[in-house]
Specification:
The complex is a heterodimer.
Chain A: E1 5-7, E2 10-13, E3 19-24, E4 31-37, E5 44-50, E6 53-57, E7 65-68, E8 75-79, E9 88-95, E10 106-107, E11 111-115
Parallel strand pairs in A: 2-11
Antiparallel strand pairs in A: 1-3, 3-8, 4-5, 4-9, 5-6, 7-8, 9-10, 9-11
Chain B: E1 3-5, E2 10-14, E3 19-21, E4 24-26, E5 31-38, E6 44-50, E7 56-58, E8 64-68, E9 73-78, E10 87-95, E11 104-105, E12 109-114
Parallel strand pairs in B: 2-12
Antiparallel strand pairs in B: 1-4, 3-9, 5-6, 5-10, 7-8, 8-9, 10-11, 10-12
Classes of the chains: A mainly beta, B mainly beta.
């Protein structure tokens, strides 16, 4: 399978614990995005990378959230001191940017986080 | 700021009938518009996009969408619905005015096709 993969698929944690999610994009894609989706809502943008550079962060991304893409390949999203409001599906997507060409994003299956 | 509205939470249609899922948008400049579909326990799958050119865009699985600049709409359509089309559909927009802005999604419309 050459699509976007995310691990773990499900994570249950207690409030105050730290969690880390991983995203492996499609191999030739240079852009990687993180979104959060809650029940009854569409995905909300969190942050994105072009290669290893984090280019934009949403106001939704509080200082408890940090994302990295150290070698321009896989990415991790860490949430420190989790709160019940962090419970959501965390989606990763990737795309290939070349010049002004507008390419669609390909999404992974998501990581469902439940904070007890 | 860019935004997307999907005015219907749920659309029900009989198998074989045409379907329409509505989407309107608001941007400062010109829009890039996308439709995605989400099946249970699976990620969003790309259906089609409008960047420029013909207002009628054809995509995967027989879906098409019509860009209407005057009505700021990008409704998703299919001439003959299948039960397997039942899923959650999301419209998304990106504003070209502000450079590389991220996608903004609507809340989604649940399509139910009844046999």
């Amino acid at each position: 399978d050459t699509g976007v993969s995310q691990n773990p698929r499900h994570k249950i944690t207690k409030r105050g614990q730290n969690v880390t999610f991983r995203c492996d994009p499609i191999s030739e894609h240079n852009r990687l995005y993180w979104y959060r989706q809650t029940l009854g809502q569409g995905p909300e943008f969190l942050t994105y990378f072009q290669n290893e550079a984090q280019l934009e962060k949403s106001r939704l991304l509080s200082d408890r959230f940090s994302a990295e893409r150290p070698k321009g390949s896989f990415s991790t999203l860490e949430i420190q001191r989790t709160e019940q409001g962090d419970s959501a599906m965390y989606l990763c997507a990737s795309s290939f940017l070349r010049g002004g060409d507008v390419r669609e994003q390909f999404f992974g299956p998501g990581t469902r986080l439940t904070v007890l | 700021a860019q935004s997307v509205a999907q005015p219907e939470d749920q659309v029900n249609v009989a198998e074989g009938n045409p379907l329409t899922v509505k989407c309107t948008y608001s941007v400062s400049g010109n829009p890039y518009l996308f439709w995605y579909v989400q099946y249970p326990n699976r990620g969003l799958q790309f259906l089609l996009k409008y960047i420029t050119g013909d207002n009628l865009v054809k995509g995967s699985y027989g879906f098409e969408a019509e860009f209407n600049k005057s009505q700021t709409s990008f409704h998703l359509k299919k001439p003959s619905a299948l039960v397997s089309d039942s899923a959650l559909y999301f419209c998304a927009v990106r504003d070209t005015h502000s450079g590389n802005t991220p996608l903004v999604f609507g809340k989604g419309t649940r399509l139910s096709v009844i046999a």
